[in-house]
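Q: Got a minute? One more chain.
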Amino acid sequence: VRKETSGDFSIDFCSKYFQPKLRNEDPASGWPHCALGPYFARRLGKQRVMGLQSSERGGLVECVLKENEQKVCIIGAAVTTLAGKTLMRV
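A: Always. Here it is, folded:
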């Protein structure tokens, strides 16, 4: 855990995510922050934490705990990398 300040926000934790069979490093992933957010929020005694995924393209992910609903809301900028349709027979 490290605490940095940059402008109007402070970074509560940094992460890296590797998935070697698909690519060497993911630029920013939401799903790991759904686990990391609650971990660091409890550790730091906060309901809202800011995570930095440290990679070449990187990304900031704000994690907001909604414990009464057992949810983690993640907030950040996104880029569509894949779009498609799924057909299901009922």
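A: The beta strands are 4-6, 9-11, 13-15, 48-53, 59-66, 71-75.
Q: Perfect, thanks.
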